[in-house]
Amino acid sequence: MLEVGDVMSKIKVMDEVLANKIAAGEVVEKTMNVVKELVENSIDAESTEIKIELIDSGVKEIKVTDNGIGMDEEDAVMAFQRHATSKLTKLDDLFYIESLGFRGEALPSIASVSNVTLKTSNGDTGTLITISGGHDLKVERSDLQKGTTITVQDLFYNTPVRLKYLKNLYVELAHIVEYINKMALSYPNIKFTLINNDKVLLQTDGNGDLLKVIYEIYGVDITKKMIPVEAENDDYYIHGYISYPEVTKGNRNSITTLVNGRVIKNNELNKCIVDCYHTYIHKDRYPVIILNIDVDPILVDINIHPTKMDIKFSKMDTLKDLIIKSFTEKLEELTLIPEVSVRDSYSVSEVRRQITTDKKEKKPVEQEKKYEEIKLDFEVQEEKKEEEQKLIEELPFEVEEDKKVARIKKMIPRGVVLLTYIVAENEDGMYLIDQHAAAERINYEKILKQMKEKPIPVDLLVPIKIELRKDEYILAEDRLKYLEDYGFEIEDFGENTIIIRTFPSWIPTDRSEDIIRKIIDLVIEKGSFDFDQFIWRMAATTACRMSVMANTYISPEEEEWILENIRYCDNPFTCPHGRPTIITYTKYELEKLFKRQLD
User: Fold this and answer.
1) Closest CA to 566 of 549, 552, 580
2) Same domain, 320 and 398
3) Contact at 8 Å (CB) between 201 and 169?
4) Does the residue 369 lie in any domain?
5) Which ranges of 51-96 does DSSP label H, i.e. alpha helix?
6) Backbone angles phi, psi at 477, to 5 degrees
């Protein structure tokens, strides 16, 4: 029989080196994580200049130099101890975190999987520390140049499994560039320099001009299509730039959100931003956004992920309301006709002049004309009021009193090309109008208006029977009640089968079955069900099915109908799915193309 003393304990406290390697697996997954932690430390050190130098995308070497407050010898040594930090001293400090770093895990985690050299000075003493693989720490005296330089070499040299799973050098570098771009946008008052293998990839001047940082990162074409936004409520203050809907990217990386200067990724917040652009851009495209959110630290929790890039908001609804209201107002103010332009060489000052042109100035000076976006005259002249009123009365749907002003000048049709694009003109230039997209927008707004009114049901002579899978039927049982409020009469008809007996009058009778089946498809889509999104998708689907298609002949009368009706839409510039309805060649651009206008 075994005595208690004969049984060996299986649970032991791991040594510090092993613990740091495990922590490194959470904090340091790729070279970007190392750069992130070091740059955030530099920002917390009140630096105004930060230089990041890489060799082979950081795999061989990462060197971050700043001009911050530096450290004395005791602090420099303590920085390599786990959970050693100057940012938290008591539990309550977790609720008031204003610094970017606070856990005290970054440096010991990085040092455990690389060779690190730290050179720092607070102006009074200079310290040089070297540490290899988390041990053999050596301390020496150094010069007194104020600031800190940290060099990380041979990342993951002692954890080959981790090294094997690094992406190729281009992918690693792309992650770093993306992160430094976001930090430069977050801190335009800091001069950032990013170098890889002696090639400068980004350099900002740190003068505090956010628009200039956008110019350095995105270039002139996007910068001149950015709109300043600023708003606040009792809990949040937001400010930054949002792009014209015509400026889009293929992924969400174009959305930069910052909370109290910290780059964050929050799916709910990103969805709210993208939803502001619905019907302006295609569902698979994303706007360019740089949004700073200032909030009392007690209202957010950043201590929910090792990378500190996710965040929880205690008053998310008020933040979303603020974003939706401010973004929507800005987008509704715009004239969103894309202009086909001849590329010129612009400077950032010229871009800024374009964006910040005094709204009271009716006409730009002649030499600045080529930098102006096309501006449509929204004011109806006195002599045209009678004609405008007549056009409004002929619209297929009623226009509210405050919507009686056309958003686009009258256009004269000149024909159709490729059975798809209406060619038109006025004194400002030439226009190309996508006949399907424009008709779709007209019908979409007409349907939305009718959906707000009491529905008029239309009886089907032969009810539509739709068979569903069991999983689809379960979803339908929960969601079909929403359709009943809009004039649909739907009944169960045996196992996993429904029949539709009536439909609302805003669905055209000759295409009713096709449209109704498509609406049912929307109802039973998997995933969370957003009622507001469903309503606009139902209206957009119906509008698409009832509108004249591309590659279809239309008469001159139909051309005129489309051109007149699109002018009075709330948003005449895109179809409900976000595609442009109209583009323009200004008179200036046409003359430049034909060398009638020379710079």
Assistant:
1) 580
2) no
3) no
4) no
5) 73-78
6) -55, -35
Strand partners, 413: 424
User: What is the rounded CA–CA span in Å between residue 398 and residue 386?
Assistant: 17
Q: What is the DSSP letter of 278?
A: B
Burial zone of 337 (CB within 10 Å; 0-12 exposed, 13-18 middle, 19+ buried): buried
- Strand, coil or helix: what is 239? strand
Q: For residue 170, give the H/E element and its range.
A: helix 169-186
How far apart are the C-alpha atoms of 323 and 319, rounded to whole Å? 6
**How many of the other CB atoms lie within 10 Å of CB of 108?**
24
Residue 516 tokens, joined = 């109704």
Measured between alpha carbons, how far apart are the two ends of the chain, in Å?
A: 101
φ and ψ at residue 32, rounded to 5 degrees: -60, -35
Assess whether 515 and 572 both reside in one domain: yes
Q: What is the pLDDT of residue 337?
A: 63
Q: pLDDT digit string (tens) for 540-583?
A: 999 999 999 999 999 999 999 999 999 999 889 999 988 889 99
Convert the pLDDT of each residue in 332-388 to its tens digit: 887 666 665 555 545 555 555 555 544 344 333 333 333 333 333 333 344 444 544
Q: Are residues 197 and 264 in the same domain?
A: no
Core vs surface per residue 295-306: b (16+ CB within 10 A) or e: bebebbebeeeb
If asked whether residues 268 and 389 sit together in one domain, one would say no
Torsion sign, CA atoms 175, 177, 182, 186: positive
* Whether residue 227 has pLDDT greater than 60: yes
Q: How far apart are CA 221 and CA 244, in angstroms?
A: 11
CA-nearest of 274, 304, 268, 303 to 286 is: 274
CATH at 261: 3.30.230.10
Q: Where in the sequence is the domain holding 63, given as residue range(s)?
A: 16-203
Contact 519, 541 (CB under 8 A): yes
In a domain, 58, yes or no: yes
Q: Return the beta strands (E) in 445-551 as ranges.
A: 457-467, 489-492, 497-504
As beta bridge partners, residue 582 has 433
**Main-chain phi, psi angles of 521, to 5 degrees:** -60, -40
Distance CA 350, CA 384 (A): 36
Question: Using CA atoms, how far apart are residues 136 and 153, in angstroms rounded to an integer?
Answer: 15
- Exposed / middle / buried, residue 548 (Cβ in 10 Å: 0-12, 13-18, 19+): middle
One-letter amino acid of 155: L
Q: What does the alpha-carbon distance between residue 257 and residue 289 come to, in Å, rounded to a whole number?
A: 8
Q: How far apart are alpha carbons 556 and 415 in whole angstroms?
A: 8
C-alpha distance from residue 458 to each of 444, 481, 488, 489, 539 (Å): 20, 18, 9, 10, 17
Contacts of 154 (CB under 8 A, 6+ apart): 60, 61, 114, 115
| Residue ending a domain, choose from 300, 333, 366 | 333
Q: Are residues 189 and 221 in the same domain?
A: no
